[in-house]
Amino acid sequence: MDFLVFGISLVAAFIFALGGVGAAIILIPILVSLGIPINMAKPIGLFYNTVSLTGASISNIKHKRLDFKIGIPIIIASFLFAIIGAYASKFIPGNVILILFVAFLLFSGFMFLFHKNKNEDQYRIDRPYFRLTLVGAFAGLLSGLLGIGGGGIISPLMLMMGFNPKKIAAITAFVVPFSSFSGFLTYWAMGNVNWRILIIASVAGVIGATLGTMVMHKKLNHNHVKKILAVILLIMAVKLLFKVF
Fold first, then answer.
1. Cα–Cα–Cα angle for 160, 82, 45, nearest 5°?
2. Fewest CB within a 10 Å sphere: which of 3, 99, 111, 234?
3. 9 and 200 Cβ atoms separated by less than 8 Å
4. What are the residue boundaries of the structural domains of the chain, listed by start?
5. Cα 35 to Cα 227: distance, rounded to the nearest angstrom
């Protein structure tokens, strides 16, 4: 099973890194299908997000693709609210959260598909800190509740605000490790962690996400990145629908 987990983790990280989104949403149900309890799969998925997208962010920082001033308010809010979300998950019915999240993902995915393209000089370059903080808080809360990274929330909200899709992917890849790690710590404190599987998945995640980030910035234009984000969000929605029903 170790080789299977490594292979799945590598491919998932590569594909989801093309959009700057953590692949825990796919990895967690796969681990559950392999016989790993959901409460043990969640911290594995969150830590996997942390290390895989940290590798992607290092690549973005090295090549000066990341706008730190946009990312910082999202990071602070998502980190704090992921802790609240993880703790609150004990008290809120899971299906209620999942149904609301599926509806949001479907809306976001179709918005990416049909959102009108802009020229390079039409994307916003300002930094609306208060709105970015709200985005981070919402993403962190759902990240903690569901045991996933908040990339599926951050990306469409930033697109609606008018940011460049490639900039969004770089910022999301930078933010998700922080919200994922705080959620991981909370779940770890509440339960057990299978460290062997966690390490195997995480090593594969770093390799896959780094390669995916390189391909995204060298081979893909803004429109391609937007379509990839749409497919990723719709895949998330379908996976969660299976989990609900």
1. 95
2. 3
3. yes
4. 2-207+222-244
5. 33
Tokens of 51: 């290390």
Structural tokens at position 213:
């980030």
* Integer angstrom CA distances of residue 198 from 41, 52, 195, 207: 9, 12, 5, 15
**Helix (H) and strand (E) counts in the chain:** 10, 0
Q: Which residues contact 20 (CB under 8 A, 6 or more apart)?
A: 53, 56, 151, 155, 168, 169, 170, 171, 172, 173, 176, 213, 216
Give the tens place of pLDDT for each residue, 38-80: 778 888 888 988 888 787 788 778 877 788 888 899 989 988 8
103-136 exposure pattern, b = at least 16 Cβ within 10 A, e = fewer: ebbbebbebbeeeeeeeeeebeeeeeeeebbebb
Distance of alpha carbon 155 from alpha carbon 161, whole angstroms? 10
Which pair of tokens denotes residue 15? 């594909």
Count the Cβ atoms, other than its own, within 10 Å of residue 224.
Answer: 14
| Contact partners, residue 72, CB within 8 Å, separation at least 6 | none
pLDDT tens per residue, range 205-226: 888 888 887 787 677 676 776 7
Please report, for residues 52, 97, 167, the alpha-carbon distance to residue 209 in angstroms, rounded to integers and kept in the order given: 6, 28, 16
pTM for this prediction: 0.71
Neighbours of 9 (CB within 10 A): 30
